[in-house]
Amino acid sequence: MDAAITQTDLLLYYYDECSADRKAMIDSQLPANPEWQSYLNSLSDLFHDLDFVAIPNPTTVNIVLEESISFSSPVGSE
Question: Which of 44, 51, 76, 77 is 20 to 30 A distant from 31 in Cα terms?
């Protein structure tokens, strides 16, 4: 990474949450920085992969919630 641009800056850039000045700086230097491009591509791949993460079965979620409630009850309250 360039000393003036951190991974946090690139993450903010990816989410379009960095300042206009920082965005302009990254935009102008991005073509010459394969490490930045690689990091941004990795972020894109990661978030694309997260779109395909399986949603747990509602029954499984209910079992976990019921178990967590039973373990969080104060001693002697049963």
Answer: 51
pTM attached to this predicted model: 0.60
Note the pLDDT tens digit of each residue in 24-36. Answer: 999 999 999 999 9
Structural contact between residues 36 and 10, judged by C-beta atoms closer than 8 angstroms? yes
Name the packing angle between helices 20-29 and 7-14 (round to 10°).
100
Handedness of CA 9, 14, 17, 20 (dihedral sign): positive
Q: How many CB atoms lie within 10 A of CB 76?
A: 5
Domain limits, the chain: 7-72
